């Protein structure tokens, strides 16, 4: 299904670090964050129209909550933004360490935001966390002792969560309690051994996962039940940051990328897609 395909560029705004693609099925929009440019973008793939929402400081993720609001994690905390008026309201601030910034985040099956942290300037081994933020703004730590909190995905029944702490080079499997928003580590199911690092990820309805490989020019497709690699999609940018499934028929894989700083790659920092 995925072997040998190459992703095509669909959006480019010169971002140094494009991340966190999120498909808004109701409005048929794709949201991405430009972390270092301090913007959330809403992209209409059908028309090419783009709406931008500025944030104060680095923005790690943006999703659409059950009320249709943009729920995003920026330096000063978690905020809700009205997509029509751009009015912004503070929700919560689980991050207390100013050396850290928010990174990847997603809504769990119950609608709470799980969002992790990483070093703002450097890397602090074991000092980042993954938090769960409830709709009322209350929060708790779900996983502690993380270095670079990254990709998240849940199985359809919500009982299993996959999570990436990038420096481990592995995808971890956790038993997930949807009622309480707690996770218990079970085992590692995928290991990236080609020198690149696992970054963001997403899950297919059949339970297989796609893993963005930072430094690897690709997104790889895995069966977490067996550890078997099923295929890969080549991306014309070295640093592949994340991915999600979207489109009117949910048959496209959208892929975000980042600039390298050393390589002169014309399309790095762009948004790509490939037909599944």
In short:
The chain is an all-beta fold and 276 residues long.
Structure characterization notes:
This protein is mainly beta and 276 residues long. The chain has strands at 5-6, 8-11, 18-24, 29-34, 39-43, 50-54, 61-64, 70-74, 77-81, 88-92, 100-107, 113-119, 128-133, 139-146, 149-154, 160-165, 170-177, 182-191, 197-203, 209-214, 218-223, 228-234, 239-246, 252-258, 271-275. The chain has a single domain, classed as Neuraminidase (6 Propeller), CATH 2.120.10.30. Strands 1-22-21-20-19 form a 5-stranded mixed β-sheet, with no helix packed on it. It has a 4-stranded antiparallel β-sheet with strand order 2-25-24-23, with no helix packed on it. A 4-stranded antiparallel β-sheet has the order 3-4-5-6, with no helix packed on it. The chain is globular. The termini are close together.
- Main β-sheet, spatial strand arrangement: 1-22-21-20-19
Label the overall shape.
globular
User: How many beta-strand segments?
Assistant: 25
Question: Mind telling me the CATH class?
Answer: Mainly Beta
SSE layout:
Layout lengths: L4 E2 L1 E4 L6 E7 L4 E6 L4 E5 L6 E5 L6 E4 L5 E5 L2 E5 L6 E5 L7 E8 L5 E7 L8 E6 L5 E8 L2 E6 L5 E6 L4 E8 L4 E10 L5 E7 L5 E6 L3 E6 L4 E7 L4 E8 L5 E7 L12 E5 L1
Parallel strand pairs: 1-22
Antiparallel strand pairs: 2-25, 3-4, 4-5, 5-6, 7-8, 8-9, 9-10, 11-12, 12-13, 13-14, 15-16, 16-17, 17-18, 19-20, 20-21, 21-22, 23-24, 24-25
Features:
276 residues; mainly beta; Neuraminidase; five-stranded mixed beta sheet; four-stranded antiparallel beta sheet; 25 strands
